[in-house]
Amino acid sequence: MNIIGNQRVKAPWHLWVLGIVSLLWFAGGANDYVMTKTANEAYLGMAADSMGVSVAAILDYFNGYPLWATVCWGLGVWGAVAGSVLLLFRSRFALHGFVVSLIGLAGSTAYTFASDIPPEFATTGQLVFTVVIWASVFGMAFYARAMTKAGVLR
């Protein structure tokens, strides 16, 4: 509980639900990042099969990322995970984690859509998924800000 004046602020039930759901959702992105960066062929093989490309083609694409795009991708992924964990710890720094994620997401999205992405990778599904990720991070940042203003996060 947090104290505002003489009143204790209890964490609402939705903080726990959103914190756990967001952590699970963003952990999926973290898993994708780790499996891609470690060139896990079994994991990448599933994506390759669904796109009709080879694992080598996927690795070539991701290995071609410039350093700044890779850093942005990492910030986007790990900032969201950190924001979710900090939310569950009721830390006011949860918002900072989500802001870091938005900065990283902006950079990685810019690179993805401004680069010469192979046609097999540039699908409507990719665009929809990117919009869902943006909405998720923005939503969680907004929520963390609201919970900080309400005195729930300390």
SSE topology sketch:
Layout: E1 2-4, E2 7-9, H1 13-37, H2 41-51, H3 55-63, H4 67-88, H5 94-114, H6 124-149
Antiparallel strand pairs: 1-2
Helix pairs in contact: 1-4, 2-3, 4-5, 4-6, 5-6
Question: Any key phrases for this structure?
Answer:
single chain, mainly alpha, 6 helices
What does this structure look like?
By secondary structure, the protein is mainly alpha-helical. Helix content is 74%, strand content 4%. The chain has a two-stranded antiparallel sheet with strand order 1-2. Helix 1 runs antiparallel to helix 4, helix 2 packs across helix 3 (55-63) and helix 5 packs antiparallel against helix 6 (124-149). It is elongated and about 60 Å long.
Mean pLDDT over the residues: 92
Indicate the structural class: mainly alpha
β content, as a range?
Answer: under 5%
- Helicity, as a percent range: over 70%
Strand order of the largest sheet: 1-2
From the alpha-carbon coordinates, what is the Rg to the nearest angstrom?
A: 18 Å
Query: How many angstroms separate the termini?
Result: 9 Å
Tell me the series of helices and strands, N- to C-terminal: EEHHHHHH
The biggest beta sheet reads:
2 strands, antiparallel
pLDDT under 50 segments (min length 5)? none
User: What is the 3D shape?
Assistant: elongated
What's the number of extended β-strand segments? 2
How large is the count of helical segments?
6
